[in-house]
Amino acid sequence: MAKKKESKPINQKIVSLNEIPEGSKIHAITNLSVDGKMSVITFHHLDGMYSYCTVDGHESGKNTLHLSFATPLVKVDDHYEIASDPNNEDGLGEDIDVDADMPPMPKE
What we know:
The protein has no helices and six strands. The chain is an all-beta fold.
């Protein structure tokens, strides 16, 4: 049986949301994640200190989240992941809660 190829960071440069293109995909554990698998988040735009993002594959209006513009990200293959936090025991970024109570922000 062949081993699954692991994703490796393209580089270890940490960037923030204001440095990545709109439409970029971010893989992270959210409260919508199933069986601890990464959710795919689409970054739409920044609105001041926070972003407007949606979790792919979930009902509109219940998939909105707002990451801080300063969320540390690393490029991995064709997507971004939240940079590891050395202060977390598991070495992963914080889990992200989707804010299902907020109405979707209007498109610009």
